[in-house]
Write a structure and sequence with these properties.
Layout (H helix, E strand, L loop, with lengths): L1 H29 L5 H10 L8 H17 L1 E4 L7 H14 L12 E5 L3 E9 L2 E9 L1 E4 L3 E5 H9 L7 H12 L16 H20 L14 H14 L1 H7 L1 H11 L12
Parallel strand pairs: 1-2, 2-6
Antiparallel strand pairs: 3-4, 5-6
The protein binds zinc ion (ZN).
Length: about 270
């Protein structure tokens, strides 16, 4: 019997050992504090982090440490990626998941361009495929890759209450994609009702599309009317940057996002409308 157990242990050990070490490394990183200069840089570059209640702020260090360990940053068009850039993007990404156990499981690479960049897209019309270049500020891909304009990532963080943040937008797509599809329906929180989510989000989306088609402005960016996944991403931007405005105009959407992220940013001190 003992020989059988030893053979069994040897057979499973490489995988078990890998998982054990991975979990241990993850636990260690999640309890790793940032240095005072890193903390100061995040507070300067991402002012929204200064509004976090102390219990949430304490979690930011560990999540940023884990993020920096997992993700490779690549500069494009000759951009020299600095530690400040990495900290800013990591802090913005981790702000979205500061209240929950969500994690960017698939994310491996963040490509950073100095400014807006061209992306080649394909348009299918019958048997004809047309390729065209589109200028973008950010992109999220389903295979663990995010592309960002540094100019707009930096500006989006600095202007913390204008409701527009390209890093929040692209990482909202990554969160959405954790369900296996980027379709505006993320994996919901434990106990969160799918029926209530669908009812709140679809009702708000339908109204938004109707208002935008009439040329009316709503609290949400018009881009949110282009697709369900874009509605989710622009709602996430607003949830963090103008929570009181979203709560006032779209209370059901606010409530669902608060349940999803397990956060109530409208109650954070000095939260702007
Ligand atoms: Zn988008």
């Amino acid at each position: 019997m003992i020989y059988f157990l030893i053979l069994f242990a040897l057979a499973i050990s490489p995988f078990a050992l890998y998982e054990f070490l991975k979990r241990r490394r993850r636990r260690r990183l999640l309890s790793t504090a940032l240095t005072p200069s890193q903390t100061a840089e995040i507070a300067r570059a991402v002012p929204l982090t200064r509004q976090l209640p102390p219990a949430l702020r304490a979690k930011l260090d560990g999540k940023v440490s884990l993020f920096l360990d997992q993700v490779e940053f690549v500069g494009c068009e000759g951009l020299d990626v600095t530690e400040g850039m990495q900290l800013s993007i990591a802090a913005q990404a981790c702000l979205l998941i500061i209240g929950s156990d969500m994690w960017y499981d698939n994310l491996r690479t963040v490509l950073i361009y100095p400014g807006a960049f061209k992306s080649r897209t394909q348009r299918h019309s019958g048997y004809v495929v047309q390729e065209q270049d589109t200028v973008r500020l950010g992109e999220s891909w389903g295979h663990g890759r995010i592309v960002l304009s540094w100019q707009h990532s930096e500006q989006g963080a600095a202007e913390a209450h204008d409701g527009q943040n390209v890093v929040f937008h692209e990482f909202a797509h990554q969160i959405d994609d954790l369900s296996g599809q980027t379709n505006g329906v993320p994996v919901l929180a434990d106990g969160q009702s799918f029926a209530e989510w669908e009812n709140a989000i679809l009702t708000a989306f339908t109204t938004h599309v109707s208002e935008v088609s009439k040329g009316h402005k709503t609290v949400l960016d018009a881009y949110g009317a282009t697709a369900h996944e874009e509605f989710f991403a622009v709602a996430v931007e607003l949830f963090f940057e103008r929570p009181a405005a979203l709560k006032a105009d779209e209370p059901a959407v606010y409530k669902q996002l608060a349940k999803l992220f397990q956060l109530d940013p409208a109650a954070w001190p000095d939260a702007a409308v």
